[in-house]
Amino acid sequence: MEKPLAFRMRPRNLDEVVGQQHLVGPGKIIRRMVTAKMLSSMILYGPPGTGKTSIASAIAGSTQYAFRMLNAATDTKKDLQIVAEEAKMSGTVILLLDEVHRLDKTKQDFLLPHLESGRIIMIGATTENPYITINPAIRSRTQIFEVKPLTESDILTAVDQALADKERGLGNYPVEIEETARRHLSRATNGDLRSALNGLELAVRSTPPEADGIIHLTLTVMEECLQRKALTHDKDGDAHYDVISAFQKSIRGSDVNAALHYLARLVEAGDLAIICRRLMVIGYEDIGLANPAAAARTVNAVLAAERLGLPEARIPLADTVVDLCLSPKSNSAYVAVDAALADIREGNAGAVPDHLRDSHYQGAKDLGRGIGYQYPHDFENAWVDQQYLPDKLKNASYYQPKATGKYEQALGQQYQRIQQWRQQHTNSKKN
C-alpha cells in the first residue's frame, strides 16, 4: 500500500522544510547546528501536523546520519537497544522519539548515557508542554524548541509543491483546483499540514475526471473531503477574516445576539482552534482588568472545549461568549504595555538604575550594583521612595485606569494613592 501524501512529501533537507523559519531559516538555531555539525538532542513541541517529524527528517537528510523513528509510549526498551547498537556501529543515529513525554523511567535510564555520549541524537516530539510533562533528567540534556502552527501561506506553498511533484506528490494527476477550494484547504486545517495534505490527496484520488480529462477540485469537493464547511462562498476569500473580526467586535460592543450569531458561523465551519484563540485574546484584551475572573473563566472554558471537541464544545463556548459580552470592559493594561513597547522600539529604554541591578555575584559591589537599594517590605504599605524606571524614562506614565468594573476601580484607587504619596515625597524633598 502506498504511503500517504504527507509521508511522501516529508522534506529531505532543511531547505525543503515548510514554515518554522524561526528554527530552520538562514542563521537560525537548528540550521546553525547542522551547518556547524554540532547537533545536540532536542525536544520539539507544538500542535499536530506542524512539522516536528519533518524537521527531524530534514536534519537527518542534511547531515547524512542514520534516521530512526520510535514512539515512547508503544515501543519497548529492546527497540531502543537496537538503535543503540546501530549507533555503536555507524557512529551516530538521529532518533525521532514521538510522544517523548510518555517516556518511562526504565527507557529513560537506558537512553540517558547514550544522549550524553552523543551516539544517539534524540529529537523528541510532543504536543505537550515539555516544561511541565517531561522529566527534568531528559530536559537538562536537551534543547527545547517550540514548533508553531503553519500559516496559510505555508500550507498553500506545501499544497502547490505536492500538486507539482511528479515523483513524490500528485504531479501525475491532471488537477485544477479552484482558488476558493485552495484557500479553504489552507484555512480549515488550522495550521495542520498533515490534515491539509491528507484532504488534498483524498480529493484528488476520489474525484473522477470530467469530460475534458481534468480533475476539477471545487470548494464543495474540498468541504466534503475535509469535513469542514467554508464560512461562505465569497470569491475574494475575505469572509473568513470578516467573521472573526465581527465576532470580536460584537463581544467588545456587548451585543450578545450578534456575538452568538458569529460564534455559530465559526462552529458550523469547524473552526474550533480559531474560536478558542480569539476568545482568550478577547478575555484579556477587551475585558482585562475590568473583570479578571471572566478571563480566567474563558481559559477554563477553552480547555473544556478542546477536551470535548465539536459539536459539544459549542456549549462552554456559548457560555463564555455571553459572559464576555455582558462583562464590563477595559483595555487599560493592553494599551499601557503597547505604550511601553512603543518607547522601547523608539530606543527610549535607558540603563537599569544601579541600585536595582543584580548584586548576587562576586565583585558586584565594586561596580556599584545593588548599593542603596531599599527593601519595600521594610516600609509601611511596602511603599518606598526610590527610582525604578531608567533615568531617561523616570517620569513616564503608561497605565491609565478605567472605572468600568469594581476590580479595576479598586486598582485605580490604589494607583492614585501611590501616585499621590510619591508626589508628596517629591515635594518634601524639594522643600
From TrEMBL:
- Show the Pfam families listed in the entry: AAA, AAA_assoc_2, MgsA_C
UniProt name for this protein: Recombination factor protein RarA
Family (UniProt):
Belongs to the AAA ATPase family. RarA/MGS1/WRNIP1 subfamily.
Task: Provide the AAA+ ATPase domain boundaries.
Answer: 38-150
Report keywords, A-Z.
ATP-binding, Nucleotide-binding
The source's domain of life comes to Bacteria
Q: Which PANTHER family match?
A: ATPASE WRNIP1 (PTHR13779:SF7), WERNER HELICASE-INTERACTING PROTEIN 1 FAMILY MEMBER (PTHR13779)
